[in-house]
Every structure is written in structure tokens, then in C-alpha cells.
User: Fold Putative xylanase/chitin deacetylase from Flavobacterium beibuense.
Amino acid sequence: MLSHKVNTAFFLLVILLLIVLSFFVAIAWWMFLIPVLLWVIITGVGSAFIFTDYHIKAYCKNRDVKEKKIAITFDDGPTPETPKVLNLLKKHNAKATFFCIGSQIEKYPDIFKAILEDGHTVGNHTYSHSPKMGFFPAQKVKEELEVTNSLIEKYSGKKALFFRPPFGVTNPNIAKAVKATGHYVIGWNIRSLDTIIKSENRLLNRVKNRLAPGSIILLHDTSQKTVNVLEQLLVLLEQNKYEAITVNQLLNIPAYEE
Assistant:
């Protein structure tokens, strides 16, 4: 995949060549805007879509898995809806991975402990999940990760190695912070859009139509709608002989520091 450093270096070289060329032939001023515009577009797409690995490597699926195994992940918890999710997972003998917000762990510590007690994996989803995260300096992002990791360790006794950036957005500052903390960035290849789509049938069909071995599904344990869809999804997985496992099992990488 094209990286931010390579992209930036390439377009700087193009602009430099245009400047040099302008000493020999007439070049319209707008010609200099073309590489700038292309750089902005590529950088915007690379920052918004985590699977591009534009700023930092992200694990979005396991292409080597041939067996019917997938990972269900939940973002933005724990919340009062999380126990309903846990009950369904237990009922269907499924495991999942929860990317938890630090402030939510503080708010619902007992629910967070229930996630751990049920044998699910937990990961870091920053402390605040701020919509301004993309504008935070690297040190501020690092602090968000460290505070949340401390909360996870407080209840689990383990240092979490999984991190999912809010909204799946990455940039140079987030990449710098993650490299400093040593987290694995975990993305997804099936985005349910359960925070946007209102129809439960549309949600289920969206996931169903994209289902394949090695997939990582993104859901949110924040609404009754998602709980309802999860129940149907778990039945669908059973009917199609799929096994729901944790992200660390699917990717064969450690979820916690040894």
C-alpha cells in the first residue's frame, strides 16, 4: 500500500521538477495545483480508511484463514447495553473483542469486569473518543492510550496491546503515538454501520453479504438495535457453521503484553 511518507516525497519531487521546468518553458500556475490537490485527496482517503495502511499498518482481516472463523468486535463500551451482548454471546458460545473507551470503563467498571470474566478480549479505544482526536498532538493521543491502558490493567492485570482508533481515522500524530506505546492497530473489513443504518434487516444483510472466513466485523455495544441484530447474526453464523472467536485468535497475535 502507498504510505504517507512515499506519497508526500513523490509529490514534493513533482512540484520541484515543475519549478525547475518552469525556468525553461512556460508553465501555467494552475499546473502546480494539480499535484497539491492529488496529494490532499490521497492523504484524505488514506487517513479516513484504516485498511489502506496509509499512516500505520492495521490488521483488518486474516486472508490466510480458510476455516469458517470470524471475529466480532464491539466499539464504544462498556454501556448498559453490554450485558445484553454478553448474554447473547454466552448463549451462542461465541467469543468477541471489545474496544473500550477509558471514560466508559470508569463509568461502568462492573460491566467491564463482566466482559473479562466471560473470557472475551478487550482493547484500547482511547480515553475520550473525542471527535477532535484527529487534531490532537501525538503526546495527547499517547496520554489517552496510556490512561486507558492503565484502567484496563487495573481490572484485568494485563497491559492491552490492541488499539482501534476512533472512527477508524489515522494520521501522522496517531501513528507516532501508537508506535510509542507499541499497540497493534486493529481495523475491520465488515463495517455494519449500526450507528447510522436504522433498519435491522438492512444491517443484518449488510454483514451477511460480506461474510467470509477471516473477517473482522465492526459493531457497537451501544444500542438495543445492535443487540437485536447480534442475536440474528449469531443464529446466522451457527446455521452456516461459522465460529466467532477473538481477534487475537483470528490473527494469531497477542492481545496482552506477556
